TrEMBL record:
PANTHER family: LOW QUALITY PROTEIN: ALDEHYDE OXIDASE GLOX-LIKE, SECRETED PROTEIN-RELATED. This is DUF1929 domain-containing protein. Residues 608-700 form the Galactose oxidase-like Early set domain. Residues 1-41 form the signal peptide. The lineage of its organism: Bacteria, Bacillati, Actinomycetota, Actinomycetes, Kitasatosporales. Keywords: Signal. Residues 792-815 are annotated as: Disordered. Residues 792-804 have a biased composition (Basic and acidic residues). Residues 261-588 form the Glyoxal oxidase N-terminal domain.
């Protein structure tokens, strides 16, 4: 059937077209003009050279496909690589869409495949355009035919050239595939002599190098050297080191003293180097720029007042951290203050940011845009504005067509109005609600992740709570397929349960208890580790970790981090394939400086493959790059390094690199779409058939020079028309306004008690009775101790004897 990828660029206000499909139905033997040719001995493609005629002006077992506003022709020509016929597809005018000749989507013609296997595809071609892609579709036994992935861009060639590529492992539920060459720019592509062979997969038996328990579930080690700073921001740098940003570390004493800290951790030798830090970057935003520097935006201008009349304030300052000099330098100011802003890198290297608190503690409704070309924040009038308050750390994931998906994950309190998730089109400046997110107002500090590979455009959202109402955090998961015409969340499997510390030791979780403060980490074997969390607002750590498999949409419980990892904790992937976890800042104001390292099971299966050489570490879109490996691998991918805080890293992504294999030489086919892999430095992993990854090599995708002056024959992005039929409520920009009202207790802390570092919850968990004795017992169990009462108000009735100290002996004796 005709497929409808999306336009490369969309101008503001241009409507999305819904074009008629031009599919050729399945052919029957009664319609054949000539008896069909059998596939050759190993070749799974029928009529691979177009020699057998069919119907509708197409060869047997081939159909016309494509979509969009373009002028095109399909023709069988005599200019063949072998035999007497070849297929020519030409676009003479194009506004949007593509055209392609595909193997017919029928049981008679589409090759049968086996789940988990890989296939080598090949063809001969001539091309006058760089805008081509070898595109696959798969037949799901439940959902029918659907787009699978783009594998390879074909360079311009005036003479017959062979192209080969290896598919990813066939997903579960797939029984057949079809494929062909998409043409999505003006020009012509002529193809002939298609081949498809199943890859022989001799898999060596894994050799367990740990205990049986470790080999099944991995292991955690707590490092002997503590993190010297109260870091709540973790950024993996393109030299393999980790930037740990604390600012004041949520300490008013350090803030008042002007003591702001960062550290650079070196995983190779286990050392820390403390870095002079110019401002309080506590709860800032951050993202890696395309050249490897780290953009750090806003932070904490001031702590709340003791009487609670003033909340947190965000400043306008912005800084860049240079991994080479390990120093910060100031940029121009943002247009607004943004304490807790989002930060998403776009396909052209720009950064877009939403939400957070302004300098006056109100909610910022100002969208900010960092220009990669100008190396600065753009003035307000150059940035499209919705005048919407997106909240704090709203998780905004870049989609393959350049739009942004707000996943519903955020920090503090309730979600935005509406369904709690939405698609934002910056060019059109419209927001469309997306349905299906369960209990949208209990997704505070849930985690969202673009599942591997990014080409699949699926997002998983895990857990969450609500610090305003303080219920038990949930174990909900939701999955959305952004490839759907009208995407909606559907319920995923419940999060596995672990143990929870309610103040008197660890006990098993029960009922629907889950966790907030979740960390999710993309792993090089194509799975996702979720770890850390707590049951309530800055209290009751949950000890549970599991690995999610996107192929089966199941969780597998694994070893749990022995350290509490709640508020202000994070976990992230290191270049050697291990996972590092840091932080924890419970409501009593303490800090966990211990660092944990997780060794996943794939590192306990014996020898690892090695990338012995990378011919070039400067990569461009649509390119083919060669590496050598010491033994066979099943896949390779780029993983964008982490920039994580508060369960949020919307830029984390795993980009599949289709393979063309010749012994130990492996050609990697790089996507032509910068929205799938925004420019920057990536970790390159090679993974064997047992899921064992190499140590990563660092490669730089589309450097600034290449971005500014791309070669004339560089391919355009092959984007698809996913999410093009949204049925949700569409909102255009609202009325211009200065800010949104936000409670000064936005952080869920009652400032009438203790210091600003201490977070006495405004609402206690449901199981805590509303008596002074019960509340004081809960505070004691969570190590708060006696608390000074700030001012004369006592809203939680903790100072019954009016001596200015909460939870004293006189308070708990009184009824």
């Amino acid at each position: 059937m005709f497929r409808r990828p999306a336009p490369k660029f969309r101008r503001p206000g241009r409507p999305r077209r819904r074009t008629a499909l031009l599919a050729v139905g399945a052919l029957t033997s009664g319609l054949l003009l000539i008896a069909p040719q059998p596939a050759s001995a190993a070749n799974l493609v029928k009529n691979p050279g177009f020699e057998t005629a069919g119907t509708a002006d197409m060869p047997y077992c081939w159909e016309k496909s494509g979509w969009g506003d373009n002028d095109f022709t399909f023709s069988t020509v005599a200019d063949a690589h072998s035999g007497s016929k070849a297929m020519k597809v030409e676009l003479t005018r194009r506004t949007e869409g593509d055209r392609k000749a595909l193997i017919t989507e029928s049981a008679e013609c589409a090759p049968v495949v086996s789940v988990g296997k890989q296939y080598d595809l090949g063809l001969w071609y001539k091309s006058t355009t760089p805008d081509t892609s070898l595109t696959l579709f798969r037949h799901d036994t439940t959902a029918g035919w659907q787009y699978w992935t783009d594998l390879k861009t074909l360079p311009i060639s005036g003479s017959w050239t062979e192209a080969t590529v290896r598919t990813p492992e066939v997903p579960a539920g797939t029984d057949r595939i079809t494929w062909g060459v998409s043409v999505y720019g003006t020009g012509a592509v002529t193809t002939d002599d298609y081949t498809m062979d199943q890859v022989a997969d001799p898999i060596p038996d894994p050799v367990c190098t740990g205990t049986a328990e470790e080999c099944a579930n991995g292991k955690w080690d707590v490092l002997p050297t503590q993190n010297p700073v109260r870091s709540m921001h973790s950024v993996v740098l393109n030299n393999g080191k980790v930037l740990l940003i604390a600012g004041s570390g949520n300490s008013e004493e350090m803030f008042n003293a002007g003591t702001f800290t960062s550290a650079v951790y070196d995983p190779v030798n286990g050392t820390y180097k403390q870095i002079p830090t110019p401002k309080d970057m506590f709860c800032a935003g951050h993202v890696q720029l395309q050249d490897g520097r780290v953009l750090v935006m806003s932070g904490n201008k001031g702590f709340p007042s003791a009487d609670g009349t003033i909340g947190y304030q965000g400043y306008k300052d912005s800084y860049i951290f240079d991994p080479v000099t390990e120093t910060y330098s100031k940029t121009n100011d943002m247009n607004d203050g943004h304490w807790y802003p989002s930060a998403t890198i776009l396909g052209n290297g720009d950064v877009i940011s939403f939400g957070g608190l302004k300098e006056d503690s109100t909610g910022s409704v100002t969208a900010e845009r960092w220009s990669a070309a100008e190396n600065k924040w753009l003035p307000l009038w150059q940035v499209n504005q919705t005048w919407s308050y997106w909240g704090l750390y709203p998780s905004m994931v870049l989609m393959q067509d350049g739009r942004l998906f707000y996943t519903g994950s955020h920090t503090f309190g309730n979600n935005i109005p509406g369904t709690g998730s939405a698609i934002y089109d910056y060019d059109a400046n419209t927001t469309t609600e997306v349905p299906g997110l369960q209990r949208k107002d209990e997704r505070d500090q849930s985690a969202s992740v673009l599942l591997p590979p990014a080409q699949d455009q699926k997002v998983l959202t895990i857990g969450g709570g609500n610090i305003d109402s303080n219920p038990d955090a949930n174990r909900l998961t939701d999955i959305i397929d952004l490839k759907s015409a009208n995407p909606a969340y559907v319920a995923g499997p419940p999060l596995p349960q672990g143990t929870v510390d309610l103040g008197n030791g660890k006990i098993p979780q029960t009922g629907n208890q889950g966790k907030m403060y979740v960390s999710t980490v993309l792993l090089p074997d194509g799975k996702v580790l979720e770890t850390g969390g707590a049951l309530h607002n800055r209290a009751n750590p949950v000890y549970e970790s599991s690995i999610f498999d996107p192929a089966t949409e199941t969780f597998d419980p694994v070893a749990a981090d022995p350290e509490a990892r709640g508020y202000h904790s994070s976990a992230f992937l290191l270049p050697d394939g291990r996972v590092m976890a840091t932080g924890d800042n419970p409501g009593n104001g303490s800090w966990n400086h211990n660092v944990s390292i997780y060794t996943p099971p794939y590192l306990l299966k014996g020898a690892r493959p090695t990338i012995t050489s990378v011919i070039d570490n400067e990569w461009t879109y649509g390119d083919t790059q060669r590496i050598t490996v010491d033994r066979p691998i099943a896949k390779a991918e780029l993983i964008r390094p982490a920039a994580v805080t508060h369960s949020s890293d919307p830029n984390q992504r795993f980009v599949d690199l289709p393979l063309s294999v010749d012994g130990n030489n492996v050609d990697l086919n790089v996507t032509s779409n910068p929205n799938l892999a925004p420019p920057g430095w990536y970790m390159l992993f090679a993974v064997d058939a047992n899921g064992v990854p190499s140590v990563a090599k660092w490669v730089h995708l589309q450097g600034p020079t290449a971005m500014a002056a791309a070669a004339e024959d560089a391919p355009s992005a092959h984007e698809h028309s996913f999410a093009d039929s949204l049925e949700g409520k569409v909102k255009k920009p609202g009325k211009k306004r200065a800010s949104a009202k936000v409670s000064t207790a936005i952080a869920g802390c009652d400032r009438h008690y203790g210091s600003v570092n201490v977070c006495v919850p405004t609402v206690f968990p449901d199981e805590v009775k509303k008596t002074t004795a019960a509340r004081c017992a809960w505070l004691k169990e969570n190590d708060y101790g006696r608390l000074k009462v700030n001012g004369k108000d006592d809203p939680l009735r903790l100072d019954r004897d009016k001596d200015g100290v909460a939870c004293g002996k006189g308070d708990v004796r009184r009824r």
